[in-house]
Amino acid sequence: MSKEEKAKVARENGSKSQGPTSTTGKAKSARNGIRTGEFAQKLAAFVPPDSAVLCNEDRQKYFILVDQLIQIYAPINQESMNLVRQIAIARWQIERLHTATTNVWNFALLTAAGEPFTVVEEMEDAQAAARAAEALFSGPLPSNA
Prior knowledge:
By secondary structure, the chain is mainly alpha-helical.
């Protein structure tokens, strides 16, 4: 069988497919566009399992929060599970806002003091997040606002 014949048979067989039907199959199929492990690693912080977690945040801590809320509220169906997820997202975002606000204030106060200061290695991520939050909060308003 020639290459052209094999390609024709493959196209015919492929056109009969109805796609994945199971949840697992659909999840696997959704990742078909990721070609290499390198690209997948670069995307890991920006794709599910949950988009509530930013690339610099600890996903494991978020999932622990979700697990704790599931134990507390014991959702009995998908709608109640969605509510638990929304609670987790809200709690996560509130904590992020508190942390960002505190870090912006702390670094602004250190800068305003006028004395040179060195950020210890453990606080470099906090300083970077504070700068990002400050830029976000002080940037121009969207044109539709």
